[in-house]
Amino acid sequence: MNIAIVGTGYVGLVSGTCFAEMGVNVTCVDVNQAKIESLQKGEIPIYEPGLDEMVLRNQREGRLKFTTDLASILDDVEMVFSAVGTPPDEDGSADLQYVLAVARTFGQNIKKYTVLVTKSTVPVGTAKKVKAAIQEELDKRGVNVPFDVASNPEFLKEGSAITDFMKPDRVVVGVESEQAKELMTRLYRPMMLNNFRVIFTDIPSAEMIKYAANSMLATRISFMNDIANLCELVGADVNMVRKGIGSDTRIGSKFLYPGCGYGGSCFPKDVKALIKTAEKNGYKMGVLKAVEDVNEYQKTVLFNKLAKRFGGEANLKGKTIAMWGLAFKPETDDMREATALVLIDKLTKAGATVRVFDPVAMNECKRRVGDIVTYCKDMYEALLDADALLLVTEWKQFRMPSFGVMKKSMKNALIIDGRNIYDAKELAEAGFEYSAIGC
């Protein structure tokens, strides 16, 4: 089977590489000439464990190719996946200009039955706009070429994307014809043989499933953070509360971990987009608006704790603050909507010196904020003469540090843990002052 994937960002590159690993002949397309040239040389623009080796292997074996010219390969493929970006517009709605640009190119060049599959996260109703854009281009050409549109939302978690793709909880496919369903069934047959769930739906339902799933996960996170903040006020321990409610089989324990806010490319954008979709249809998503508000507040919690500890924000001037973790989550260099960006902004505006370390996101941080912080070569260098440590991202190497080395390095033995990875009793015995979320 021959397919094309337009967009070599996180979703497109991972999906294309994994399809190639399954034996599909894949051509990844991107308008960015420099990115395509780098990929052709085997240079991977994103950090994802295991992706480099898989890209190189499938390139070497001829199943994975890269080009800037979608039109030149349309005669040779049975379906085209659109995995271009859908960034939030100024009003929070999803910007569909890139999605519709792919549709127009598709309509301008197809000569035989081909399916255009939307893999990007898009609002309900996008498939109708895509179909109309394709048909408009066909009408301009004065031709009657059969085609279908379909929806195949992705559910990849950064840091474990390859496993998520190859061993999915479920694959959701929205179609509106038997012919498209048969083609998608052929593509996903290897997963069906392994008894993975491939769920076929109508297209609007497939489009909604992605937003609803991410919004539910974001809701659980914000709910737990709200509970954590209340726990601190009433003297309860959120870790015990989490275990207590998570043991209820109706609730479960996943995504009930309190922390210093969620970020990344999906949850913030998708929550905003679903809120905006509701507004456009005359409905208010009250729960999701609260989810968003709680998360924005949560990103300031570590700063607020720090300011309170030193007797007010004004007293942070001249202090040296260490930060462990910059990426929005471990196993990625993604800093989109990251809590670290909020903290860096507030700390530097308060006059503090900020020393940072992250295993993979240092270059991305420098690209975003420049040299307003000090970039350190390792986690312990970041602690030199620090008045406090803020733990922002729960990388594995941060979980069992040498507390003895830490205490010798720091001016003030204070740890504010934004991910609740340390044991308060152990740190007290080691001579640290310790504060976490909700306890």
Report on this structure.
This protein has a six-stranded parallel β-sheet, sandwiched between helices. It folds into three domains: about 1-200, 3-Layer(aba) Sandwich (Rossmann fold); about 210-295, NAD(P)-binding Rossmann-like Domain (Rossmann fold, 3-Layer(aba) Sandwich); about 300-435, 3-Layer(aba) Sandwich (Rossmann fold), CATH 3.40.50. It contains 16 helices and 14 strands. It is about 45% helix and about 15% strand. The chain starts with a strand and ends with a strand. Helix 15 links the parallel strand 12 and strand 13 (about 415). With about 450 residues, it is of the alpha/beta class. Helix 1 (about 10-20) crosses helix 3 (about 50-60), helix 8 (about 205-235) packs across helix 11 and helix 10 (about 265-280) packs antiparallel against helix 11 (about 285-300).
Distance between the termini: 54 Å
Largest sheet: 6 strands, parallel
Please write the CATH class name of the largest domain.
Answer: Alpha Beta
Low-confidence stretches: none
CATH topology of the largest domain: Rossmann fold
Q: What is the share of helical residues?
A: 40-55%
Classification by helices and strands: alpha/beta
- SSE topology string: EHEHHEEHEHEHEHEHHHHHEHEHEEHEHE
Mean pLDDT comes to 95
Q: Which outline best applies?
A: elongated
**Count of the separate structural domains:** 3
Beta content: 5-15%
For the record, the CATH architecture of the largest domain stands as 3-Layer(aba) Sandwich
